[in-house]
Every structure is written in C-alpha cells, then in structure tokens.
Fold this sequence. Notes:
Layout: H1 8-21, E1 29-33, E2 51-55, H2 65-79, E3 83-86, H3 92-103, E4 107-111, H4 123-133, E5 138-141, H5 147-151, E6 160-163, E7 185-189, H6 198-211, E8 216-220, H7 226-235, E9 241-245, H8 252-257, E10 261-264, H9 273-280, E11 285-288, H10 292-297, E12 304-307, H11 312-323, H12 327-341, H13 346-361, H14 370-378
Parallel strand pairs: 1-2, 3-4, 4-5, 5-6, 7-8, 7-10, 8-9, 10-11, 11-12
Helix pairs in contact: 1-13, 2-3, 6-11
Amino acid sequence: MHNDLRVYWKRRLIYLRNFLKSKDIDLYAVELFGKGSPYVFDPFNKTEPWWDCLFPDSSNNELSKYQIKNRVFSKLNEIKPDIVIAGSIVFYSGALGLRWAKRNKKKFIMFDDAKPSWVKRNFLVQGIKNLITNQIDALWLPSNEYDEEYSSLYSKKKLHYFYGYNCIDNQLFKFNDQKKFDNKKIICVGRLVPKKNIRNLLSAWKFVEKNNDSNTLMILGDGPLLEELKSFAKSIKLSKVKFLGAVANDKIPQYLYEADAFISPSLYESWGLVVNEAMAAGLPVLLSNRINAASTLLKDGVNGYIFNPYDLGEMQQKLLDFINLPHLAKKEMSANSLKKIAAMSYENMGDELMTALNLLKTKQNKKPGLVPYIAINLWYGRYNTFGWDRV
C-alpha cells in the first residue's frame, strides 16, 4: 500500500503477485489517490481484481484525514491482510497502515529509500518519527549501504532489515547485440524540472564542446523547463545537444542502447531507477553524488564516474574523462555495469521478501507501549508533493 503506485511500481507488483502466488500467498495492491502525484501522467486504470485505488478521482488535499483513514481502514478490513507493506510513516499509507496493523495484531513492513540525514527535521519531530517507526516489524531498504544511517535510529536487533526493492525488469533493457561504443552519444533521461540540474549540465557541456566536440548530448524527457533549457542551450551556442522530448516507455531501451554512456546531474534523488535502466542496457554511468543509487550501483572509475553536481568544473572533467577513454576501457565499464545491476533483479527482490515473510511468521507481534501507542493513533501521515521537483 502506498499513496500512489505508478510507473516503476507496476511491473514490480505484477512480478511479486505472480511470485508470491507460486508460494500460496496472495498479494493485494492498494493505492490511495488517483490525483496529485508527480506521476499523474501515468493514470490509474482498474485492470486487475487485486489492485485498487481508494480515491481515483481525488488528491489528498481534497479530502479530510478522517475520510482517508476511514477508507483505508475499510479496505484493509475487507482484505484482512496478515502483513501490511507500506511506505514510510511520514505518508498516509505508512501511518495508517501501521495503525491498522497494531489495532489488528498484524505485522507491518515499511519500505523507504530516503536517507534520514538528507531530511532535516527539528529534534522533537524527528524524535516522534523515530518513536513511531520503531514499532514496525521490518524495514525494506534498497541496499545494505543504507544500514549505517538507519541502524543508528532503528535497532537491527529489534527490526528485521532486508533489501532490493528498488529494481527494474533488467531483461527489458538487455540487448543481444554487443555494444560498440562508437555512437558518440551521451544520454540524460528525466523530467525537466529544477532538481534535475540540466542547466548546469548544459553549462558543463559547453566546456566539453570546446575541448572535444566528438560527442552529442542527448536529453530525453519533457517538463516545465523544456523551452527554457532549449533557449539557454541556444544562447550559449551549443551545437552538439539534442532535446528529444517525451518518449514512450517502450522506446527508452533503444535510446539507451544507442548511447555510449548515461549521465544524471540531479541535485537530489531518493534513489533514481533510471540509473538501473541505463546499467541494464550496458551503459557506463556518470552520476551526481546526490543520487542515492550512486552509493550502491556506482564505483568511481569502474563502471562510470561520480561528481559533485554543484561543482561545474568537476562535472566537466568527468565528462571529458569518459569521452577520452579508449574503446576497450568503455567496454570494460559496460561489462561492470551489467555485472553490478544483475544483483538488483526482480528475482532477488522476491527472494528477499519471501525470507522476510518467513522470518516474521516466527516472531511475536510487537505491542507498543503507552507513549508510542498514543503517537501512532494521533499521527495520520501526509502527502506533501509540493516542491518534489525542487531541492
């Protein structure tokens, strides 16, 4: 259950539904809101009997927290799950899912890919969040690189940690033909919004063109900054940049395959699944160190390069370093990307979840103390997407 389950979640959930069915376990998907999502371009369509949207024609700000709570509880009472899996308790899905689980003596798994140190809260707010989160039964993280931050707040002795939900269908991006790395293209894929930092990328590319104009920068994506970025590229006289606009999802693998490398200069990404896609297509990746996926999937100089997105000179240098690599070194980086991303698969995700489910069956239900109980029943969560595209 989550506030919305769009874009990348669809294939993951269909895989998990089939995988768990083979283990005699039923999975149901519940998303709360049909509107208000940053992914509203991917609308909810009721095509599966096991998948529902509680408010398909509403966003959270059109509803009271009591309406949301009553509908969530009604749906969970209908399904009667043994385990609720939901996002962080900062969201309605996590807060209300945990409350229902505690009232009904069921287990609760929380998934999260935001690093606590990157989210600034005052001492009291963070303390209350920690108090509530410590009542969950298991924590599903993208990788064990997150452990250091989370285990300082939530004891691994009291919570089961497991990993691997931030994955894609790697097979969709796999090509049988061997990449040649002579296309002379570097590709950037993403929504054209402020946090993607494309203007700085264009500025860095100006320096690249002056020093080595053999490559073209391909920018794939749409968004409110498209025309502004086109104008900026023209104003600084870039000649080797192409804006491809919006592209259908099923066309993206071909664009990735035809590139020599992928770059993302984002100022913040809680993960960044497009990195998975690029690596599954065999691309070396040039990544901002503010992309959480970079800490797990990128080893500097092995399958790409990492840079500070605020440091224009460093971004320029990393681009040139890759462009000037010999052909064989680029092929080696490609092989390393494929090897690394193979571990972030649907199969691994299913196995990790199954291990967690089997373990939780052996554990007693956690009964919260008086103060956590009060906090759980006073907190409803939220869905604040304002500023999602900014830093």
